[in-house]
Specification:
Elements lengths: L15 E5 L5 H9 L2 E6 L10 E3 L2 H11 L7 E4 L27 H11 L3 E6 L9 E3 L12 E6 L17 E3 L2 E3 L16 H8 L7 H6 L3 H20 L1
Parallel strand pairs: 1-2, 1-4, 2-3, 4-5
Antiparallel strand pairs: 5-7, 6-7, 8-9
Protein name: DNA methylase
InterPro entries: SAM-dependent_MTases_sf (IPR029063)
Keywords: Methyltransferase, Transferase
Length: 242
């Protein structure tokens, strides 16, 4: 597979990361930039995913890796289980072959399997989900992006300090109750109502390898996981040195 985002891969020297519920690879790209080799898994066909991936149910695949011992190829696991159960964002789930079908809650079973791996991990969810521990919250303004896109992360088997939240510089551009508001951020969700063009959304998120709106609006900016990945590698290096 051709890698389209300019990330150099050095096999045998970079730790390997498993990206579950991978969608189009927003999280994966950040981890790769931080220093990981990445393999993805998603139930849907993801031709824009810029790394090797397995098409299939993420939890079934993780259970298979644990049962066979193949999970030991990996040093770290990232999981973004479907957020639509109990959340205002309702555009699809891991078990959908398209968008906007049945909504299920996969956070608890994902955590249970991740705990069985014995590996450090991250579970990512948007605001509005009470099922995860909010060990870390990141925002686009922390990285100078043109989206807000708050995301919460539960850290399993490792810890890192929460960085200071940076005050927002204004509103998210778009219509609210029939009135248009301008602002420095674009809305990285939905369609219509003053939402950004595909090109604007790509620029705002820092994602250039897919032009599918649904994939862009489901993704997290790579800057988030680049920061997380570097933080974890630094923490692991300190533990080895100690």
């Amino acid at each position: 597979m051709t890698h389209r985002i300019g990330i150099r891969r050095v096999h045998g020297r970079r730790p390997r990361l498993l990206d579950l519920f991978s969608c189009a690879g927003g999280a994966a790209a950040g981890y790769a930039r931080a220093g990981f080799d990445v393999d993805g898994c998603d139930v849907a066909h993801r031709p824009n995913y810029p790394f090797p991936y397995h098409q299939g149910d993420a939890l079934e695949y993780l259970a298979h890796l644990i049962a066979t011992g193949e999970i030991h190829r990996y040093a770290f696991v990232h999981a973004s289980p479907p957020c639509q159960h109990g959340c205002a964002l309702t555009v699809g789930t891991n078990r959908s072959q398209g968008w906007g079908r049945a909504h299920v809650d996969l956070v608890a079973p994902t955590r249970a399997l991740l705990d069985k791996t014995g590996l450090p991990y991250v579970i990512e969810q948007p605001n509005g989900r009470a099922e995860i521990r909010k060990d870390l919250t990141l925002c686009g303004e922390m990285f100078g992006l043109k989206v807000i896109r708050h995301r919460n992360f539960e850290l399993g088997g490792w810890t890192i300090e929460q960085p200071a939240h940076v005050p927002h510089r204004g509103r998210v551009r778009g219509y609210r109750h029939g009135r248009f508001y301008d602002g420095p951020y674009v809305a990285a969700y939905g369609n219509g109502g003053g939402k950004p063009t595909i090109a604007e959304l790509q620029t705002a998120m820092g994602i250039t390898w897919t032009d599918v709106r649904e994939e862009l609006t489901e993704a997290i900016p790579p800057a988030y996981t680049q920061w997380i990945g570097r933080a974890h590698l630094a923490t692991a290096a300190l533990e080895v040195a100690a």
